Amino acid sequence: MNVLIVGAGPAGSTAAYYLAKAGIDVTVLEKTSFPREKVCGDGLTPRAVREIQKLGLPHPETEGWRRNKGLRLIAGGRTIELPWPEVADFPQYGLIRTRLGFDEELARHAQSAGAVVLERHSVTEALRAEDGRVTGVRAALLDDAGRKTGETRDFTADVVLAADGNSTRTAVSLGIGKRDDRPLGVAVRTYFTSPRHEDDWMEGWLELPGRDGKLLPGYGWVFGVGDGTSNVGLGILNSSKDFGKLDYKQVLREWTAGMPADWGFTPENQVGEIRGAALPMGFNRTPHYSPGLLLLGDAGGMVSPFNGEGISYAMESARYAAEFIADAAARSASAGWGPADADAHLARYAGYVQDQWGSHFTLGRAFAALIGKPAVMKLALRTGMPIPVLMRFVVRMLANLTDPAAKGFEDRVIRVLESLVPATSNQAAPTKAAATKAASTRAAPANGRPTHATSTTDSVPHSGANSADSATKVRVNP
């Protein structure tokens, strides 16, 4: 079995490493050349650090990896420091590492295991057989300046992994589009030369005022990189009625202008331009499996609606995909599995991903809708910030740092909450006709009483003024 991976980010390189270690022929096509920059906060929670440890990727501080103790949260005139929780399945530290270095190290780690990484290969579309199965991709070759040379190459494989990020041309070329019934975020960030570059905490500012002074659903961050600079940025959810109407770069400028002068967050200390990117959340591109194709990480909208974290879920999805592929390859060799058997096994990948995070993402989608209402956001901060034990629980919930087997109070509460909601679906989005029919079924009376048929359409508010206004009326369907 041979595998083709589109994208050498955290998802693509992680999958490539595991597949190569399993003896599978794997090729990665990366649009740019390393080192290359990506818009990111550069923060890695213990959930992401666990994946780095599983890969066996060295991360010494002498090589640009800066450890941190936990989160420092600021809101309502209060500051609280919350160490990363002691959870059996996770390390008790986070990391800061610029994507400029992190992504290249992951790609080289995959190469060291035997993966082939081809840089400056920009995938433009997926290739399909007559029966619709994905059989490969077409890539445009780029020169050293990132310009198309006019030459293209076709690559074929038994399985294709789309790990090409939020814009994922691989999936889009197959008509796999974004879902409007899922949350979306936007992040902007830049770097400043700052004396705060050696901060031991990942700092989050939970109050971001909008144009009318009301709180925006999101947070700002200050992460010390350790190289003389700090990564400073903000992330905002589309559950605000102002989403898409604000100049987010200007919001960042105004926010940093109010910081203490000795922190150095001034135009003359800024390193590089302010850059932005979309955050695809809550499985906002589905299905995650199509014959011959699996979606990984941001390509499948696997960013958490709770905190905008995407790297850990990208790397986890890559590990899961590699395990299913390696298992299918082994059984094809030893148990006489044919292509249909292998496909049936690979199709289970989507269900497994849904089982892992579906309920967590459902709660996250409800959370995103609720904080889109400024009054709810203000009340939550006023209530929670003075109570450290409550904030510790919130951090564990938002960062998904729980132990499924633990009997502690916090773990039990989170398990109960997740058991009360259906898992967010990562199957194909319902057609408009199916959604209309499902809606009419719910509305139509039966024997004089309203029916409550469950639909595959998501009903958690997700964007715009209507979502924000109705955010306290949340019904969570998959």
From TrEMBL:
Residues 425-478 are annotated as: Disordered. Residues 425-447 have a biased composition (Low complexity). Transmembrane segments: none annotated. One of its GO terms (molecular function) is FAD binding. Residues 452-470 have a biased composition (Polar residues). Residues 2-329 form the FAD-binding domain. Pfam families: FAD_binding_3. InterPro entries: FAD-bd, FAD/NAD-bd_sf, Geranylgeranyl_Rdtase_fam, Geranylgeranyl_reductase. This is Geranylgeranyl reductase family protein. It comes from Arthrobacter oryzae. The lineage of its organism: Bacteria, Bacillati, Actinomycetota, Actinomycetes, Micrococcales.
